[in-house]
């Protein structure tokens, strides 16, 4: 594996903690574009169970996989000679588990041929956070598979050095990490130009030690890399955020109250995460 340059930053997988305040779907009602919580109830009743089983088996073999499962269906499309797809961009190198989606799709085709879209399979699989300790949530199904995936779309991913204002302007709301890791290349600039006032000096030594193994060395976002919980926000309160985009959430008055709220209120964090995941689907 080649080392990443300073400009080739892998920022990890954003897991949709977008601080959303709206509930889009309640119960088993039909939504826009014909999406429904019960879309496969008659079309393919075993769809959810098949995907769930495939994901659980994969997580038992590799618990780190939960952080790498994406929720954007365009990342399933492969590159061609004429086009580099999103899945092969530097910003998506941390995405994994495509074989899990392929396995679930193959099994579903044996039971319900040409019924369940890859888009819905990926959305179901993204709920792997539940088996990593996260909240259980439901999403409307019935999405169609797209045919377009371009690497240029990754320009919409935030750089690891963005501040809170840039993140808010980009998303309207902000995202954060609670599963997974970042590679040294994505945060080592924080260690190169003297003391970072937003970085705890003891934690800085931990980051230095990690980077001594090279640009691809992995640093967990919090103490529970494979568990979905609110310890990420505790880390930010201690100035132990790995990326600048992590720690700036606590440094900025605009987002600090969310960090404090989620660090104190585990259930509140889970609730907002549920609503965020429904929103982005």
From TrEMBL:
Disulfide bonds: 44-112, 184-211
Enzyme class: oxidoreductase
Gene3D superfamilies the UniProt entry points to: 1.10.520.10, Peroxidase, domain 2
EC number: 1.11.1.7
Alphabetized SUPFAM superfamilies for the sequence: Heme-dependent peroxidases
GO biological process, one term: response to oxidative stress
Bound cofactor: record note: Binds 1 heme b (iron(II)-protoporphyrin IX) group per subunit.
Main location: secreted
InterPro entries: Haem_peroxidase, Haem_peroxidase_sf, Peroxidase_pln, Secretory_peroxidase
Family stated for the protein in its record: Belongs to the peroxidase family. Classical plant (class III) peroxidase subfamily.
Name of the protein in question: Peroxidase
Organism of provenance: Quercus suber (Cork oak)
């Amino acid at each position: 594996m080649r080392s990443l340059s300073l400009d080739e930053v892998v920022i990890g997988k954003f897991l949709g903690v977008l601080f959303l305040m709206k509930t889009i779907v309640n119960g088993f009602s039909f939504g826009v574009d014909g999406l429904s919580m019960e879309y496969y109830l008659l079309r393919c009743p075993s769809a959810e169970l098949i995907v769930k089983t495939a994901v659980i088996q994969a997580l038992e073999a590799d618990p780190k996989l939960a952080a790498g499962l994406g929720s954007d269906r365009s990342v399933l499309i492969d590159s061609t000679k004429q086009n580099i797809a999103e899945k092969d961009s530097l910003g998506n190198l941390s995405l994994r588990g495509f074989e899990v989606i392929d396995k679930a799709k193959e099994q579903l085709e044996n039971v319900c041929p040409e019924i369940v879209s890859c888009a819905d399979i990926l959305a179901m699989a993204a709920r792997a956070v539940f088996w990593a300790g996260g909240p259980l949530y439901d999403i409307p199904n019935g999405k169609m598979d797209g045919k377009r995936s371009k690497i240029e779309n990754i320009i919409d991913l935030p750089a690891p050095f963005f501040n809170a204002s840039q993140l808010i302007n980009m998303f309207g709301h902000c995202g954060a990490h609670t599963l997974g890791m970042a590679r040294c290349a994505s945060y080592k600039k924080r260690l190169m130009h003297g003391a970072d006032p937003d970085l705890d000096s003891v934690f800085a030594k931990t980051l230095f030690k990690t980077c001594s193994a090279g640009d691809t060395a992995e640093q967990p976002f919090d103490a529970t890399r494979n568990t979905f919980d609110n310890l990420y926000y505790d880390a930010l309160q201690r100035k132990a955020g790995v990326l600048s985009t992590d720690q700036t959430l606590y440094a900025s008055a605009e987002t600090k109250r969310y960090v404090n709220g989620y660090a104190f209120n585990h259930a509140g964090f889970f609730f907002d995460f549920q609503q965020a995941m429904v929103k982005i689907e």
